[in-house]
Every structure is written in structure tokens, then in C-alpha cells.
Amino acid sequence: MQKPLILVTGAAGQTGSATTRQLLAAGYPVRALVRRRDARSAALEALGAQIAIADMGDPEAMAAALKGVRRAYFLPGYDPALLHQAAVFATAARDEGLEQIVQMTQWLASPMHPALMTRQHWLADRLMTMVPGAAHTLIEPGFFADLPYLATLPYAARLGMWPWPFGDSRNAPPSVEDISAVVVAALQDPARHDAKRYRPTGPELLDGPQMAAILSRVLDRRVRLAHLPFPLFLRAARLDGLPLPMLAMVRHYRDDAIEGAFALRAPTDDVREVTGRAPETFESVARRHAAGISRGLGPTLRQFAKFMLVPMVPPPPVASYLKGLRMPAPAAPASPVNSPIWRSEHRVDGPATSETAPLKAVG
Fold first, then answer.
1. Beta partners for 198?
2. To bridge 16 with a disulfide, which of 11, 74, 87, 258 should be the other Cys (CB 3.0-4.6 Å)?
3. 215-255, pLDDT tens digit by residue?
4. Residues 161 and 82 in one domain
């Protein structure tokens, strides 16, 4: 029996590329949607993926990308046009008669969240349920192990210090591979995973000192947790090339972490229940990342020079960027842990469940 063609949007990104690789390994034909041809798309094409070049906000291009597709992984871009992208995708999915949409959202998604794209995620989640006849599954991870935590692993490997802006927060961070494995399992069985929401996590809650101790073991050197003032963290993130739309939101996510949003209902058993295997540990993911880091004298000196440069980097123009968007904002923003809507939808005051709470408008 011929397997259905699956579209993966954001296929050059972290979970998009991992999902594409895992689907191809399972024998599914995959159309990988990317913005441009580059080394990442060439690598996916070499594995057997069809490559579709399209802007996700272009209705004609999206309709062409979905031609002949039966199932899709919708991974919206980190872009202030996220909701527009979702509307374009939902329209094309309806016209093509998709039988399933697996959708990446956020554990933090809420209508009153101070971060624009997190509010848009909440709306996009509901929009996808309006595609007639399509099974719908939500994947809602928190912070990944890979990003943000291990993005600064080179500092730990080369300098013995690990920048940490997240205060006393705790998380059970999932790996990109585990998140993608949940996506792939859902795409293989639409009926089983319809109207479910999954929150992949790692196997244990960890705080900053515990993660630093794990990195010490992985790197075979003492790693000191360096509590970084958040303005310096933003400058370092800008130096590392994080896009302005993400920098404009990450301050809110850092506050959410410190308030305990990622520790609520964590860890889950969703990875094991959906995929049949245990989730990766933070140590396992760290070892994979550490394997590619050179620790010779030259890389160490360059890392030190980069570290010394951070205070001289201009702060990202977050306020002017957000003002220029002219997007509506809630009259009374609320963090997830202080939002009755979020707490109800995520059942943080009741038993954990993968069943999707009704996705409906507020009012």
C-alpha cells in the first residue's frame, strides 16, 4: 500500500529537518518546504525529499506546495506574520482536503500573553481546527534542550563558564529528536492522535546548577554557572545572530521560566506513550552537541574575545521594533501562570492528560 505524501513546513529548521529525516527513514514520501535552496535543503534532497521553495505567506505558492499532499506538519516561522501564515496554510489545506494537520505550537500559548507571537500561536491553534475533515494534533513543547540551553555550550567547553539568565527556574527540556519523533508518530496514525495535545519533555526536572553539573561531566572539566544579567544576555544573543523578532519575545519567556511555567506538569510521559521509547536525557543531548566543539587554543581565544565583546554590542532595538509593528496588544497582559484561561486549557490544576481542551474563542 502506497504511503501518503506528507508536507513538512520549516523543513530547514530544527524540528522540521529532523521530522523530514525521520519520515524518510520510515519510508514516507516527503515534500520539504523551505524558503530558499541552500546546503540544508540540498542535504534533505540528497536523502530523497522533494524540495518546495515558497514563502509561507504566499497563498498561490502554498497551494502549489500542498498539491497532492494528504498530511502535513505545520511549523510556522518565527515571524510577526505568523497568524497570516497560518491563515494561508489553513485555506490551502481546506482546498486540498488534507486528512491531517500536526501543528507546532508553544506550551506558553495564551490569548493574554505579553509576547505577540505567543498570542498568535494561540489563535493559530484554533484556526487549524476549522479545516473540515482534518485530524488535528498539537505539539506544545517548552524550551528545548538544544535551544536555548545548549546554544551557549561552546562557552562552557572552552571557558569553563556557562551563561545562565534563567534565575532559579527548572525545566525538563526535550531534545529536537524526541519532539520530531512525536510529530512523526502522530503523522503515521491520524485517527489515534486526532484532538490530542502532546507536550514532549525530557525525563527529569533540572535547574541551572544541575545542568551545569551534567555539563561538567560531559566536558570533563569544571563548568561554573555564570548568572548573566538579562540585558547582557540579549546583547550576547544578538551577537550570536538571533533574529530581532525572537529577541523581542525572549524576555517574556525568561520571565515565564522564572515564574515556574516550564516546571508545571513536567516531566510528562508523552514521548514514551507516543513513540514507545524513553525520552533522551539532558546529558545525552549535551554529549551530541559537545562532540562537534573544538577546544584547541585558537577556538578558546576566539571564544574569550567574543565573550569580552558582548558588553560593547549595542542592545537590540526591541522597543522601536515592536512599536513599528503596530500590532494590537491585550489591555491587561498576563503571564501563563497568572492566566486562568491558560491554566484551564493546560489542566495545570488537575490531572495531566493528552486530550485537547476545547479550542474555542474567549467571551
1. 139
2. 11
3. 999 999 999 999 989 999 899 999 988 899 999 999 999 99
4. no
